[in-house]
Amino acid sequence: MVQVKSFAFNPFSENTYVIYDETGEAVIIDPGCYDKAEIKELTDFVDANVLKPVKVLNTHAHIDHVLGIAALKRKYNIPFLLHILDEPLLKAVKTYASNYGFSFFEEPEIEGYLKDGETVTFGNTTLKIIFVPGHAPGHVAFVNEEDKFVIGGDVLFRLSIGRTDLPGGNHSTLLNSIRTQLFTLPEDYKVYAGHMEPTTIGFEKKNNPFFK
């Protein structure tokens, strides 16, 4: 069975996820850990549970989701994967990071690209990649069908949706992504979002004010 551990990091309270199974292999998704204390919190958890991270995956490349990638790549000697359409967003972070107080941002190198419909595997676990643009042009989400959850990034939140006023955002595209890619999943699927607490597909279909 897959385990999902979340951490709220950096001033944006961004949710970073460590996903692991009974083999001990793990992936780290959207590492927003910036300072030494946050990185230590994550790595202490990995050590305490005797986990072996094998990949860093990102749903998208806004600043609050990418701050810890380089440090974790270096510590665990693992590859980083992102959708190709978000590579320009990643490369732009260094031009504005200091404006948000992140003076020591280190841009990570990308080892591979995430593609819609393909899968990421680790241990006994498979995550299906779905393309959900709108908040960011190359935004993806990761679906685990066996344990019925989605790591959704900044697409769908509890009673809300991702903002679309950042470069590459598009409101109608985001709504279409949610309707066609997320709301077509079974209602009992849990959604682990990039901020705030988890929700479910069914709850959002019934209650999300953006779809009334």
From TrEMBL:
Pfam families listed in its UniProt record: Lactamase_B
CDD domains tied to this protein: metallo-hydrolase-like_MBL-fold
InterPro entries, per the entry: MBL_Glyoxalase_II, Metallo-B-lactamas, RibonucZ/Hydroxyglut_hydro
Domain Metallo-beta-lactamase: 13-195
Protein name: Glyoxylase-like metal-dependent hydrolase (Beta-lactamase superfamily II)
Domain of life: Bacteria
SUPFAM superfamilies: Metallo-hydrolase/oxidoreductase (SSF56281)
Classification via SMART domains: Lactamase_B (SM00849)
Residues that span the membrane, as ranges: none
Cofactor(s) annotated in UniProt: Zn(2+)
Keywords: Hydrolase, Metal-binding, Zinc
